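In the laboratory, one determines a bound structure by crystallizing the protein with its ligand and collecting diffraction data. In a computational setting the workflow is compressed into a single prediction: the sequence and the ligand go in, and a structural description comes out. We illustrate the idea with magnesium ion.
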Amino acid sequence: MIEVENLYFDYTDFKGEKIELLKDISFKIESKERVVLLGVNGSGKSTLLKILNALVFPKRGSYIYKGMRIRKRGFKKISRSFRKDISFLMQDPNMLLFNATVREEIEFGLREFGFDDIEKRVEETAKRFGLEKYLETPPFYLSGGEKQRVALASLVAIEPEVLLMDEPSANLDPPTTEWLMDLLRELDITTVISTHNLALAQKFGDRALVLSDNHTLLFDGLLKEFLKNEELMGEAKLLHRYG
Ligand SMILES: Nc1ncnc2c1ncn2[C@@H]1O[C@H](COP(=O)(O)OP(=O)(O)OP(=O)(O)O)[C@@H](O)[C@H]1O
Ligand SMILES: [Mg+2]
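The predicted complex, in structure-token form:
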């Protein structure tokens, strides 16, 4: 479903120097796989997710989604079906909330993609996400965890095939994190989730992609194998000295 091959991404910093952020990254993700993306701060996780969501494009190498090469040139032609298929819960939910009320927030995507019975879908989604009492509230007033839930509700309402999530548990308390995991299990769609929470990672998915701090792909395989391998964990700088 998702094929990334020899992908490179760089940017030019304020001194005019080229900084490589993703180097020679290759992996494949099959439909309905649940993949956990690990790596230290700045290793490139969010950037990789942005590439998978076609918010930025690779500098070299390829990203192929359902057999289509995703690149800047010609993206407009497929952007509508691509955006219906792939949803991205960004690291900061504020980036995703721009409507006057929670109701309008959930309605937005449903309208955009021409769903029928929008009212009914909004009610159902609100119920599923425990947002009924906030439907007329401006998202602006909500707590971080509640905003996260609204952002996720708006994305899931349009029934995407792929859900990309950047640190989804960062704002969530333990019961809401548990609820998120149940939801992901129930959704049963392709998911790629970046997280720093190794204790929870295994509940999010079985497979891990691990970026090293030199921006290459250090590991692609079973998450439980990675967590057992102290040498690799050390190389990824994901071991705690105070444990
Ligand atoms: N266009 C750009 N201009 C300047 N700096 C950039 C640009 N794009 C990315 N960066 C830098 O690249 C680095 C990698 O960013 P990214 O957000 O992908 O890392 P991350 O693995 O998600 O980190 P975190 O765990 O902190 O969320 C960061 O240091 C960021 O500041
Ligand atoms: Mg990030």
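The two ends are 38 Å apart (CA to CA). Keep in mind that any predicted model is a hypothesis to be tested, not a measurement.
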